[in-house]
Amino acid sequence: MYRFISTFLQISELGGGALLCSKIKSRAIFQTCIRNVKYLYKEGEMKTMQQGWLSNWLVKHEVVHRSLGFDHRGIETLQIKAGDWDSIAVILYVHGYNYLRSQCAYDVAPGGSLASVYHLTRIQYGIDNPEEVCIKVFAQKDNPRIPSVFWIWRSADFQERESYDMVGISYDNHPRLKRILMPESWIGWPLPC
Questions:
Q1: Which residues of the chain, if any, have pLDDT below 70?
Q2: Taking the model in full, what pTM does it have?
Q3: CA distance 1 to 124
Q4: Closest Cα partner for 102 from 168, 158, 177, 180?
Q5: 55 contacts 38 by C-beta, under 8 angstroms
Q6: Torsion angle of alpha carbons 164, 166, 169, 172, nearest 10°?
Q7: Torsion angle, CA of 75/81/83/88, rounded to 10 degrees?
Q8: C-alpha torsion angle, residues 85, 86, 90, 91 (rounded to 10)
Q9: Residue 26 neighbours by CB under 8 Å, 6+ apart
Q10: Could you tell me the sign of the dihedral formed by the alpha carbons of 20, 55, 96, 162, in that order?
Q11: Torsion angle of C-alpha atoms 163, 167, 170, 176, degrees rounded to 10
């Protein structure tokens, strides 16, 4: 972790910009700093990152979301409310995100919330570098319910079932939401804290 912090600080100095996150003393402060920094190190220089098209569209149409920035490959990551996920998923499919690359779930923090993560890709003929977006949908542990996207991307079938089986997120309107890895007699969920 600390090696990554020092590498990030060295990279930010190489780009000619000011030291972006100096004297980081805790992981929480570091994460806050990273969220606030709008730079991406690419090709030996610092480049300012703009919000992606999806975040801009959601702001324009007053859909509540939170931009989590871009990952190391420049893929936009957004946090979406569970109640808005089914309509935003349809919008993404209509816009051309026709492939659900992967879906996973994880426990954010003990006593906190659970997250369901969707990596979507826009596949077209003749395109070498397809567009991608990462969507994170959070649900409270006391009633973890998220709308299923099975009816939009059929590849979500086994992936959402695995997330249900391991973490306990219930995907509304999923046609076969039952255990896939653990025996049916298993009580509880193996992965949440």
A1: 1-50, 192-193
A2: 0.72
A3: 38
A4: 158
A5: no
A6: 0
A7: -20
A8: -30
A9: none
A10: positive
A11: 40
